[in-house]
Design a protein that fits this description.
The protein is mainly α and about 200 residues long. It is built from nine helices and no strands. The protein has one domain. The longest helix has 27 residues. It starts with a helix and ends with a helix.
């Protein structure tokens, strides 16, 4: 059981640590110190839900309906392009880090949910892949594996969101934000292209 749990932690971290739109957004919100707990909670709980669904066998159902994944692919790519354009616009008028700037919680929640659920890779990685690997650990071991993967997700998003505060002092110059926004915009476009080509 412990082997399944540790394997779940390591496998979950291996899939989630890769730089992507969701991780970039969590980092950005962490640096801004705006609604970090909400963003981290949505990401971690969403991962937990998708992992549990995958282990319960929903992954097989998704695999049988490629049209649904194709629709999600195009919606996700469109959203990533919009996010990239927004980042490039921010780069044109960079501002220093504002810790007290008003940001609507509803907008943060909507963006976090969109970056989570409009990404078809989250279904491929979390539901299909983790679900299939978990089910190789037997009836009891698969749930220990799932618990490990959920733990890895909670640890990663918490570290990324709340750990971003450590770099916040270095983010006081508008020029730093210009570079960060350009990097995030380019990354979003690249992910959108890779998404469409996959």
């Amino acid at each position: 059981m412990l082997d399944s749990y540790v394997t779940g932690v390591l496998t979950g971290l291996g899939l989630i640590v890769a730089i992507g739109a969701q991780n970039a957004y969590v980092l950005r919100q962490g640096i801004h110190r705006q609604h970090v707990a909400i963003v981290v909670a949505i990401c971690a709980l969403s991962d937990a839900l998708l992992i549990i669904l995958g282990v319960a066998g929903v992954g097989a159902l998704i695999a049988d309906h490629p049209t649904a994944l194709n629709i999600m692919k195009w919606l996700g790519a469109a959203y990533l392009v919009w996010f990239a354009i927004t980042s490039f616009r921010s780069a044109l008028k960079p501002q220093a880090l504002e810790l007290s700037g008003p940001v609507k919680r509803s907008g943060v929640i909507a963006t976090t949910l969109a970056l989570t659920y409009l990404n078809p890779h989250v279904y491929l990685d979390t539901v299909l892949m983790l679900g299939n690997i978990a089910n190789q650990h037997g009836a009891d071991g698969r749930w220990w594996f799932a618990a490990g993967a959920v733990t890895g997700s909670i640890v990663w998003f918490s570290a990324l969101g709340f750990g971003a505060r450590a770099v916040a002092p270095g983010m006081s110059k508008p020029s730093v934000w210009r570079v960060l926004d350009v990097i995030i915009g380019c990354m979003m476009l690249l992910i959108a292209v890779l998404l469409v080509r996959s």
